[in-house]
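Hi team, as promised in this morning's meeting, here are the two structures we talked about. I've kept the exact order from the run log so nobody has to guess. The first one is mostly here for context; it's the second one we should focus on when we meet again. Sequence first, then the predicted structure tokens.
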Amino acid sequence: MSNSGEWSAPDRFSDNEVELVDEIVLSEDILDEDGSVIGELDDRQLASALREELDGVERALERLDAGSYGLCDSCGNPIDDAVLAEMPQARACSAHLV
């Protein structure tokens, strides 16, 4: 896949969303938990991963606007700050992770 084309983020994207898109688009490798490369994404996989990440960010922004960001969807308890720092779009506390 070539990253030679420039893309322009829609106006509705926040700076964080633009950074997320850049990070996903520029990374074509799938990394194992230890950081080793286990394969390359094809265009469909990359598009799917990008859409999934953006959907999560958009849901997190909606929860932020509604005042429910950082609360578990299942029980309403706060999600640990460490979890949110690692995955800002988290929707479940440690008791309700699937």
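And here is the second protein, the one for discussion:
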Amino acid sequence: MKTIYVGNIPPSTSNDELAEVFASYGTVHEARAVLDLVTGLGRGFAMITMEPDAADAAIAALNGAKFNGRNLRVVEHLGRHEGPHKWVPHGAGGGEGLV
């Protein structure tokens, strides 16, 4: 399985709408718009889980595509602590910062 990050979606986007868009490229195992825990409103991004080949096809086709008047950002999700920026503690307060 491969997880896809989908950014710049309208806050009103449903999981079903996302699954329908991505189903054109293969079986969608999970489509989940991320909601704000306090307000319950969409935060403007989602996670989609698909087979690797289907996910790669969806990423290639949908990154930059228009969806409900917005240009989508569609990339492979590398995980919270992977990729070019990593959260590491720094400073006297022991807080976290992006390096």
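Starting points for discussion:
Confidence is low (pLDDT under 50) at residues 85-90.
The chain has one domain: 2-98.
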